[in-house]
Specification:
Length: 431
Amino acid sequence: MWKKSLALLFLFMLLLLAACGGDDQDTGGKSDDGGDSDGGGEDTVEIFSWWTGAGEEDGLLALIDLFEEKHPDITVENAAVAGGAGTNAKAVLATRMQGNDPPSTFQVHGGAELNESWVAADKMTPLNDFYEENELTDKFPEELLDMVSKDGDIYSVPVNIHRGNVLFYNMELFEENDIEVPTTLDEFVNVLEQLDSAGVVPLALGDKESWPATQIFENLLLATLGPDDYRGLWAGDVSFDDPRVVEAAEHFQTIIGYVNEDHASRNWQDAAQLVGGKEAAMTNMGDWAKGYFSNDLSLETNQDFGYFAFPGTTEDFMVITDTFGLPDGVENPDTVKEFLSVLASVEGQDAFNPLKGSIPARVDADTSKYDEYGTDTMEDFQNSNLTPSLAHGSAASEGFLTKINQEVNIFVTQQDVDQFIEKLKQAEGEL
Ligand code: GAL
C-alpha cells in the first residue's frame, strides 16, 4: 500500500516539476507563468522584423550588439522572418497579434500600417511618457512624429528614414554609353531606349514578390500627380480614374518593356546584383539597396554606383520609416523600453543607419558616420516634399496594398491599362 502511495507522490512531483520548470520556448518569447519572458527566468526581448540576409540584417545586428553591450543581463531573441518588404513577416505577425502572442517589439512602418492595423485595433501601448522620459519629443522631425501618432498619442519609435524614389545606376555603363542622368519622365524613356539600342538591359527589376513593381508605379504616380495630388489619392480627394493616373499607368507599361526578361524570378537583391555586376544599367529601389551595394557587393558610392531621384520626382522624397513600438500585453514592458531607448538614441541610430543605407530618424545624429549617399539624402530630406510610400505601408491600409500588389502583378504580365485603372478604381473602397 505504502509503495503505491509513494509512486503516486513521485508521479505528482514529476508533474509539478514539468509545470513549473518547463521550457516555454514554443510560446515565442512569452511565458505563461506570469514571470519573465522565456530563457529560464532571464529577461528577454524578442525583436521581430524582416531583416535577414543580404542588404537587410547588418544594421539590425549592429543595433543588437550595441544593446547587448549596454544590457548584458538581457537576452535578445532576433525573430526575423525573411522576405522583402515584410511579405512573409507581416502575415506571421498578424497571426501572433490575433492570438495575443505579440513579440516584445516589431518592425512596423509609420503611417497607415501602424495606425490602421495595430493602433486602431487597440493592440499598442502609447509611448508618450517614454518620449518625455527620454527627452525625445523634439528629436524627430514633426512629419515623422505625425506618422507614428494617432489622436495625440505616440505609438512607436522611428529607427530610420529610407527613400523610395531612388534610381541606382552602374556608373561605368552610363559612362560607356554616354548617358546623362534623366530628370523628367520623357528623358527617362529616351535613356531606356538609348541603352536598349546599345544592347544593355536598361532597368533591373526583381518582382518575384510584386512590391518592387508597385514601387515603380507609386513613383510614377508621384511624378504625374505631383506631391499634393499624390497625397490626395490616399485622402480620397483624387480618384484613380484621373487622367494623370492613366498617364502613370501608360508610362508604367512603357517602362516594363525595358526590364530584364527574368524579372519574375528575381527578388530585389538579385535585381540590384545585375546593376552591381554591370549586367543592367539601373534599378529603382529604396535605399536599402545602398546597404546592399556597399556591404554585400563592396561597391563604392559615386565610383561604382551612382544615384538620382526617380525622374519627375526630383523635388520629392518618398518616405519609408521603420519604427518599433510596444505591443499591449507583453510581460516585460520595461525591458522592451530599454531596447527602444537604445534604438532611439543617437548612438543606436548611428550604429544602424550607415549600414542600412537609410538616414537617421533623429535630427541630431552624427553626420560624419555617413558616406556621401547618406549626407546627400539627409540634405534632400530637409529640402524636399515628403510623401508617404504605398508599397511600404504608409499611404494606405494593408487591405488596399494587398489588392494593389495583386493588380500590379497582373498588369506587369498583361499590360492592360484600361483593366488596371478599372481595378484600381474598384479597390478605392478599401482605402
Ligand atoms: C521595407 C523596409 C526596409 C527594407 C525593405 C526591403 O519595407 O522599410 O527597411 O527592409 O522593406 O525588405
